[in-house]
Amino acid sequence: MSTKTVPGNYFEDFSIGQEIRHATPRTVTEGDIALYTGLYGSRFAATSAATFAEAMGFERMPVDSLLAFHLVFGKSVPDISLNAVANLGYAGGRFGAPLHVGDTVTTTSTVIGLKENSNGRTGVVYVNSVGVNQRGEMVVDYVRWVMVNKQDAASPAPETVIPDLPGAVAAEDLLVPFDLTGRDYDVELAGSPFLWGDYEVGERIDHVDGMTIEESDHMLATRLYQNTAKVHFNQHAQSQAKIGRRLIYGGHIISLARALSFNGLANGQLIAAINAGAHANPTFAGDTIYAWSEVLERIELPGRTDVGALRLRTVATKDTPCSDFPYKGEDGKYLPEVVLDLDYTVLIPR
Amino acid sequence: MSTKTVPGNYFEDFSIGQEIRHATPRTVTEGDIALYTGLYGSRFAATSAATFAEAMGFERMPVDSLLAFHLVFGKSVPDISLNAVANLGYAGGRFGAPLHVGDTVTTTSTVIGLKENSNGRTGVVYVNSVGVNQRGEMVVDYVRWVMVNKQDAASPAPETVIPDLPGAVAAEDLLVPFDLTGRDYDVELAGSPFLWGDYEVGERIDHVDGMTIEESDHMLATRLYQNTAKVHFNQHAQSQAKIGRRLIYGGHIISLARALSFNGLANGQLIAAINAGAHANPTFAGDTIYAWSEVLERIELPGRTDVGALRLRTVATKDTPCSDFPYKGEDGKYLPEVVLDLDYTVLIPR
Amino acid sequence: MSTKTVPGNYFEDFSIGQEIRHATPRTVTEGDIALYTGLYGSRFAATSAATFAEAMGFERMPVDSLLAFHLVFGKSVPDISLNAVANLGYAGGRFGAPLHVGDTVTTTSTVIGLKENSNGRTGVVYVNSVGVNQRGEMVVDYVRWVMVNKQDAASPAPETVIPDLPGAVAAEDLLVPFDLTGRDYDVELAGSPFLWGDYEVGERIDHVDGMTIEESDHMLATRLYQNTAKVHFNQHAQSQAKIGRRLIYGGHIISLARALSFNGLANGQLIAAINAGAHANPTFAGDTIYAWSEVLERIELPGRTDVGALRLRTVATKDTPCSDFPYKGEDGKYLPEVVLDLDYTVLIPR
């Protein structure tokens, strides 16, 4: 029997400081833009129209930050999370050079934390994944941690290292790839009159609309990102597992929630940071995703009067409209209908 | 609670002469061409092959007229028909500058008619929507009318204004963006030997083939056009409505019927006008669409001997082959299996 | 009633030596690349990243050989297999000039064999289909044979001509559109350390992963290829046929099996030949496809020390993992779970 097949790494295969250069660099095409629009219906003007992006002082129209995130994330799956039990969280995600059509992304991950679970059969792996373009410029840099199976429960536990997780990305680390100084920003074409100064900390916005997910939709998306996690694609195997169904890639929910958030946050043109995130409950085909957001912080950007940032919490639910902002129960746990809790930062004109 | 969410306009929000510049300009990419082909399987040579288009004297390969139509239509939905009860009809649709990869479309609509319904709870709004490219050239210009809910039944009825609806677009208003003079038109590669002179007024063509629609297909298409009408996407909400299911965007049926019409009208390379149209009955996932066409008029184009036009009626049905041309019953009403009645004009070499 | 509709050819419409120039040339776009990735999740680096392809000495990043194959195949369907009962086999498939974004493919087929079946109602048609780009360079050249209905059982049988089917494409006929001489080939980015010399004849590889197919997936793919065979698309008609369901285009299974084969054959960057192939059993939406491969031959390429070829048999199954390499029963017939038996040749660095 051949041993040429890649089995993915198990918990005992990881060590602190280990650096993994992931396979399959990926060139972004105009097709990715169209598929991303078709999959989520995103309407942010800066990533929809070259003319609008150029009028904002972008060099060229960038692709959606989240498409960049998914491509970088996808590369890391075969090495990091093929044998994962759960994707536990994200932290410290910064977006650097915007990705354009024709750019090629490559991802490298470094193991920065390890903790075996008390059951001795699984452990948590913390990695810092960095996606770069063909010029070596950072495109996305983030930390995620996943629970991974051990192959052999008898293998010894590594020394526990829990990294200092970065908090919210600081104002001075937010990169702004456009400049509105001396330019007219067209709020009508952008879809909303509300700019940076119009949002209040603590303000909550129900994004109203809902989007139902089909199996084809999430599989098309997840394959596009060359994410190979088995649980998303193989109904034959999932039928035999406890859960019985294909699980939807958590990033698909992030993109849907972001697209829904246009209704209320249309000028939040670009995501500059993903501060923290959790997939509170799993989603399946047939679920209808709704979302609401809370303004966590209104951030002034050093030296910039043309643009500011909003730190937001966007919460997505399944089969539950968000007019009363469902979140956590009295026990402090996520309500069962809550599927995403994302703390991130968007750039928005002043 | 935030008021930053766009609720869409209600009947009493519209006034005669009101001009609405719609949000989210949209740049056409090569990805749109591929998705359009993948969604409908269209085979018209002029929009499938750059070589063929150039051999016809097009400057560059244009994208399908209907893709242009859907993009322009999609922009208008959040402002015009988010609270629509029904999309009642189209008239006077002219196609201008062909849309190419790299072009950016923006849409503006003007309210040209208003009529409150006798129930006092809804009214009909007539708008003239015009899509332009980044050079300000008209891409599509058409009238549609929709039935829209009132937010407050007590608000007073506006003065009734019913616009003179344009009839079929006149020969002199049809724009021909190619020139076959002195060129060989390759009927073999085009897929049919039948040219302008081979069609007779009154001739009816059964397009034979059928195409079944899945939920993923119509939602992918409708999101691609950034059309946000809730009824297409939200199964959770639709389940609670009388109809119980997601409604398919009528334009999806137009594109399917046009793609099916290749079998019988392969040389009708480009749609130059949509004279009138009605969505006779709703369609749902699982329906199989068939189509037939009737030649309404054979039009000579002023000063052109290389190309003519055919005014066609294409009728689409669900789950009903079209060998006996199903249309209207003895009562003059559409048969229940008829889903589209489209009066439009195609350009076809002589 | 109109006779403008193309009915497709029946068995008695074919004659030896007949040459058919198929309709609808097709320009390849960046959208095709993205959709191909989204449909199959293919991860071969040479067709995923422009930088990687250029580092291998490709002039430009080629599109996947199988996308070229499907486009060429699709063109031939309306003339060859619209009335086909079954697609019986492939032979002698050679890939020539790689297809790039912007290239336009046209297909011509020549009838090279005919044999009426003893039932007098069907016959087998052998065609040699050749796809060329806009410069007339051969892109794909292959033989396929299909069982086609007769329109009139009373029409006389043609003289039986069974062509000499080409065997496996010879080493000297394999075209290598890249040159690794003097270049570093990055096995890490490619996803596997195993190169030409690491594979043994007779070695078998279980590709482990499984992919479930939805109706939307195979229809989106098959329409993208402008393949019009009715059995793939029309549930209304299929419901009335014995099989009751839409059949999946066999080429969709080839592409899925090839994408799955990345896990074990990641350096087999390009398919250079399809030597023979059979669709052993039909597939339907809901099936989960698995695959395994056997190395049939390790081929040295004349004058090349940078690259070799592997002749492979890849077998795909439905709803059956491949750890014990399911293939044929004791009776020599394919097991019912086997859906594809493909004999092909890939190029792989030494």
Automatic annotation (TrEMBL), chains A, B, C:
<dbReference type="InterPro" id="IPR052342">
    <property type="entry name" value="MCH/BMMD"/>
</dbReference>
<dbReference type="Pfam" id="PF19315">
    <property type="entry name" value="MC_hydratase"/>
</dbReference>
<dbReference type="InterPro" id="IPR029069">
    <property type="entry name" value="HotDog_dom_sf"/>
</dbReference>
<dbReference type="InterPro" id="IPR016790">
    <property type="entry name" value="Thiol_ester_hydratase_Rv0216"/>
</dbReference>
<dbReference type="InterPro" id="IPR048274">
    <property type="entry name" value="MC_hydratase"/>
</dbReference>
<protein>
    <submittedName>
        <fullName>Dehydratase</fullName>
    </submittedName>
</protein>
<dbReference type="GO" id="GO:0016829">
    <property type="term" value="F:lyase activity"/>
</dbReference>
